Amino acid sequence: MEQLRRAIEEQGVGIGRDVVKVDMFLNHRIDTGLLFRMGEAWAAEFRGEKPDLVLTVEASGIAMAVAAAHALGDLPVVFAKKSAAVTNNGDMVEAPVYSFTHKQQNMIRIDKRYLPEGSRVLIIDDFLADGEAVRGMMSLCAQRGAEVVGVGIAVEKGFQPGGRKLREAGIHLKSLAVVEEIRDGKIILREED
Amino acid sequence: MEQLRRAIEEQGVGIGRDVVKVDMFLNHRIDTGLLFRMGEAWAAEFRGEKPDLVLTVEASGIAMAVAAAHALGDLPVVFAKKSAAVTNNGDMVEAPVYSFTHKQQNMIRIDKRYLPEGSRVLIIDDFLADGEAVRGMMSLCAQRGAEVVGVGIAVEKGFQPGGRKLREAGIHLKSLAVVEEIRDGKIILREED
Question: Which terminus in chain A has less CB density within 10 A, N or C?
Answer without folding.
Answer: C
